[in-house]
Batch of 4 targets.
Target 1
Amino acid sequence: MSDVSRDRLDKLDQLRALGVELWPRQFAGRMEIAPLLSRADEQPGPAVRVAGRIAARRDMGQLSFFDLVDPSGRVQVMVRKDVGDVGHAIAKKIVQLGDVVGFGGTLGRSKTGEVTVFATSVEFLAKSLREPPEKRHGVTDVELRYRYRYLDLMSHPESRAGFVLRSRVIQELRQLLAAKGFLEVETPILHPIAGGAAARPFTTHHNALDMDLYLRIAPELYLKRLLVGGLEKVFEIGRVFRNEGISPRHNPEFTMMELYWAYVDYVAVMDLTEELFVTLAKRHCKDGKTQLGERVIDLNGPFARKTYHELVAEHARIDPHDEAALRRRTAELKLELPASAPAWKHLEALFEQCVEPNLVQPTFVTLYPTAISPLSKQCPDRPELVERFELFMNGWELANAFSELNDPLDQRARFEAQVASKDPEAPAEVDEDYLHALEHAMPPAGGLGIGIDRLCMVLGGFLSIRDTILFPLRRPLAAEAPIDSPPAGTPPPTAGGGATPAGG
């Protein structure tokens, strides 16, 4: 056992000897720190009860000074001997950095003018058995910040602010949609058939029914069943799961908002999407603009609208309708495609390689090839294209939408083609239950999916999706040693003695 661990465990023994309850259930009457700071000059000084984490301590003779932090702010606490023998012993001998402590007292100012709680009582609430992060730099290793998010939140106020932003964005998105008459619903997370998107699913097994199930890769097909049932404007915000790689833009578990709107097409959904993004940007970004690295993204609208093929022509510098030219260009760029790959695969590869990185300012990409959009309605005059758009900015896809395919015969043919392709990202069987729903007539409709995590990346100016997910998936480390055992394997992400967390 390290000296630090032994010392902190010894403090627990000292608390027991004083007859103090080690892990009390509550601290009644607690007040947030920030609202109290403006009351420091009231006469007489108001009685307060504050609690939080100890971020710093200073001892001057019989006086002990603490910096106490909670999510709202920081305040100095002064403890004198008149708090009683037990309270004074706790303050002088037991309280350490990282401990959670409650103080009752009177609010005022110290001789130097600093807002101070002059303590009349001390209540020990929770003992930190590990050293907190180092004061000046906190947890500086980025990977450790993601792995030990609680230390990141403890040390970095800007990280906490990012997750507060995320919560508010989701609340406001709900309010905006509800104001337009959309009904929030919940659909299954366990699916008997993985459908609604092109992605590898996670598989699980239900023991009682002895059947394999999939964590949903999209809620789409269940939401559209609700359109058949007569719910004409529905949306869902929830987790989806895709058994794919991890990158600055991808996490296997992420949050999606999907909505479906009866009797409109993808153009109406495009207008709604722009309105949502512009409204949220005006609320959370200065002048409606956000900065992502060196780039300033203007979200004030209107957003550019360009077709898939004209963007390939512009950025790949070829005729996207010329199959031979497509194959030559992918070969020139050394994009690995099998010789048997159809022309649309080459077109798709060129879009990803040449177009996406250049879509910096908000751009709606419209009219996608039918071959890569199995759930979208075809254009009446051009069946090789579908009424679909994706919203891009900073080279990232932020939203995907289309005029929904509601022809059950066409949908069956496309499902069967997907199954026949043996594509590992396509369903392995036809979803007969969904087709059964379509055969009862689904009204024309537009649908939309927005990645909440990427939306928050844009609004918060984050370059990694892991900055918007509290607990992103990480490769496991060897188990850390318990506090009362010799350390083994990877040490905990803590810094040296005497350090204090910045900001709490």
Target 2
Amino acid sequence: MIEVRSISKSFGSNSVLREVSTVFEAGEVNFIIGRSGSGKSVLIKCIVGLIGVDQGEAFFDGRNFTSMDRADRKAILQEMGMLFQGAALFDSLTVKENVLFPLKMFGTMTKGEMTKRAEFCLDRVNLAGKGGLYPSELSGGMKKRTGIARAIAMNPRYLFVDEPNSGLDPETSIVIDNLIREITLENKMTTVVVSHDMNSVIEIGDRINFIHNGQLWWKGDKKQVLATDNRELNDFVFPSEFMKEIRENLRRAL
């Protein structure tokens, strides 16, 4: 579980986050949604320590990550897996070498154990036998699956995912969504996903946090998204009459 308490962040006179507090539960897919510039990506960066906060704290299973010094943070950082937008693979490394990278950098396994773990992760994302390929030889979906394999290589307790379906076709997006969901449940990870893809939110979202103008404007589950009267959330999720009709159909289906 990750608990965020009253996080605020400004850049100069621009207040990006204002006293955001929420909880991301273990064994669940927790979404952060919101318009571009709303502060959702900055919130993730504050939680994982990439950006310092002006105010507030982030707790990882009760451990105050924000107040720790660099040395103490290292242990928690090794418990995190991250899937960046676009997968962010190393072009000069093969698929298998990309997955091995965090194991070599931060792990304590023997060479044989690292190889076995990398192969297991590739098999888990249906890339068995593809370890010798380079990123330039992969489709967009394969790159994302490689990114997932690398993100879970260290068997993380916490998984952070930034726009996992960006640039993917609908069919491939479903594959990626299902992988994220399955891996979260299998490993009882606390998974936090930043996304604009409302199909993903409805399909695999357990808890949803809506950021609006730097504030946590609404939170709930996917059934509550369909039922809410929150105007700002409805305008974001269902911006057209066509989408509002889809919402009514989904309400009846759920």
Target 3
Amino acid sequence: MKVGLVLEGGGMRGMYTAGVLDMFLDNNIKIDGIIGVSAGVLFGVNYCSKQRGRAIRYNKKYAGNKNYMSIYSLLTTGNIVNKDFAYYDVPLKHDIFDIEEYKKSKTKFYATVTNVNTGLAEYIKLDDVIKQMEVLRATGAMPFVSKIVEYNGEKYLDGALADSIPIDKCMEMGYDKIIVVLTKPMNYKKSKPPQIFAKAFYKKYPKLVEAINTRYIRYNEAVDKVNELEKQNKIFVLRPSRKVEMSRIEKDPDKLEEMYDLGISDTNKSLSALRKYLKNSD
């Protein structure tokens, strides 16, 4: 039996995912393959490196640092999340990512990115997080506040623009059991955005504009599908049991801790049902 895991993004709401995955490590929940999006990738890789607590630790420490994630970084570098400090200095110098342990992991990890020329999702396998750090930058590159990221001759932005919840891709890959971790409470739906901003900002990339302006449709359809599959007991879903008021670029360490603790608590309450789901065969 192969177990797949889908990790939604959501900026700092991904602290919920960090809590969930730390509970997976604590309770030896084995995953064969992960498809992550944006923050789901950035925080999810710590599951494969077995670095419990790393995501919440470095985010609480650096979230308020202007060189980590800030308007200052946006104005001075073009990226609201600082490329050099957040993606290279933190994992290589300040809170070192265990790349050797990651490489030992038998869990296959895929990062969802959006090709700005085609407007379509691509799923890039992460064999070496450090050497492929630009893939992590691409999947987390929020539109309007991030520069387009180039990787292997292609141009990418936030994977959530094309596929916010890659449940279809996970099913296509043939996993027998699928766990989905969402970062928004039950019944959350996206609204149609103002169409003019994307058209003005990305006029050179019409397919990307279309992806941005129609993202809400795909997102809401994916949520409906997840809910229906959950009702049929075909997948197992973990989502915040209550709303935590926080922004995508939340800097308040107490809010980050609250979201992380909610992930811990919700997973702890769901462990028995999760083990039952993973044990039972259709």
Target 4
Amino acid sequence: MTSSNGSSEEPADAVPPVVAPQLRALRRRAALTLETAARAAGLSPAHLSRLETGQRQPSLPMLLSLARVYGTTVSELLGETVAGRDAVVRAGTMEPTAAGGWTYWQAGGSGRGMQALRVRVPHGSQGDIVRVHPGEEWLHVLRGRLRLRLGDAVHLLDPGDSAHFDSLTPHRIEARDVDGLELLFVHTLLQSPTPALCLGPAATPTRHTAGEMP
């Protein structure tokens, strides 16, 4: 089933039990109505309501958008707690979390002005989702090959390659290989009254970089 914003809606039984009430609690803590929060996140009020009642599973881009709107982190939206503000994050404390087909691990502390994640992107997962939001993003390919669309340009990144860009540029991330890819991903957490995220199939023509086949 596909929502009006172009994202795939998944069964509610895939949602961690704490997520739905946490989404509602953090929206209320931010003193936002359902309509205001949904508009700021680029969602419909009905879709946000279904997320808050556990009827739909939020994708990772939706969680990133809601985190910015509520001035918090994805980890807090998921009900995760991190003791203190330690400078070091140990590998053994990184618990995987699945959202919208992606798997990710917290690679940085909570309550900071940016969030660091290690992200696993399967082939074919969310390939038609285009994101637009305030701030900056930096990513580094650890494994696999990445197809990164920025505006109307397509960039092909191999392991060891990085990208740093303004997140107001429409962007899309997808794995080029059937084995998927793994990234280090850093983004700023900026609260904004404007729509923070646009989801949906890409509509603009694509300009291929050298060596890229249509």
